[in-house]
Specification:
Blueprint (H helix, E strand, L loop, with lengths): L2 H4 L28 E8 L2 E6 L23 E7 L2 E2 L2 E2 L1 H8 L14 E12 L5 E9 L2 E8 L5 H5 L22 E14 L7 E9 L14
Antiparallel strand pairs: 1-2, 1-3, 4-5, 6-7, 6-9, 7-8, 9-10
Length: about 220
């Protein structure tokens, strides 16, 4: 891996301030009032980094296509600045560099809701309880994973679950060797993000259902 891929070098910074002078031993450039940065460019894109290796392209998206101006992989050391009426405006580039995730942009998650059979539970660190979930596929009870967020042992025990000596799935799913198994007769609501996998993605416990029997908790068949 070379320095282009590692991206660990820093832009060249001013070493000292001196009086203006003229000498054939030096190459001169204008010091703009901006942010010193490196531009990593190849045929896949542009990557801007400051002296702390922070990515700057999200703050200056206008420069996302400058890699199209070069014919080979390269690293350029330069100044990132904003011009207003022909004058550099350090406040404006600083404002951009400090800009974050805005309240005008709101993320709304799409959640799926499932009815699941509580088949047991496990105790985790910091007194956390994780419910072992199942759903039916026809008459067969299928292991569907766990839910921890929103679960309390007090709430579960208030519904008087019946302990049993073995897994109701007919086998012990991996990671459940220390589980406390329950008669699969309690139903709960679980919200999760949609996924094509057999287990739930970021599941959240939303409460118990007294109006549904376990056999009604059927797995959805994908078409």
């Amino acid at each position: 891996m070379d320095i282009f891929d590692e991206k660990v070098i820093k832009p060249m910074l001013i070493g000292e301030q001196a009086e203006a002078f003229d000498s054939p031993d030096y190459i001169y450039e204008i010091k703009f009032d901006g942010i010193r940065c490196l531009a990593y460019m190849d045929n896949t894109g542009t990557d801007l980094r400051n002296k702390r290796n922070k990515k700057l392209l999200p703050h200056a998206p206008e420069l996302s296509q400058i890699h199209k101006q070069v014919d080979a992989k390269c690293i350029l050391d330069g100044e990132l600045f904003v011009l207003k009426d022909g004058i550099t405006d350090f406040y404006e580039i600083q404002r951009r560099a400090l800009m974050t995730r805005t309240k005008d942009w709101v993320k709304c998650k799409v959640m799926a809701s499932d009815d699941c059979v509580i088949c047991g539970y496990t105790q985790k660190e910091k007194s956390m309880t994780s419910l072992i979930l199942g759903q039916y596929k026809g008459d067969e009870l299928i292991y569907r994973g766990h839910v921890t967020l929103g679960v309390t042992l007090r709430n579960l025990l208030s519904h008087e679950p019946v302990r049993i000596d073995c897994s109701p799935f007919g086998y012990v799913p991996p990671g459940n060797e220390n589980a406390i198994w329950l008669q699969p007769e309690l139903v709960c609501i679980v919200e999760s993000m949609p996924t094509e996998k057999d287990s739930f993605r970021h599941p959240v416990f939303r409460g118990m259902r007294d109006d549904k029997i376990p056999i009604e908790c059927q797995m959805w068949e994908s078409k």
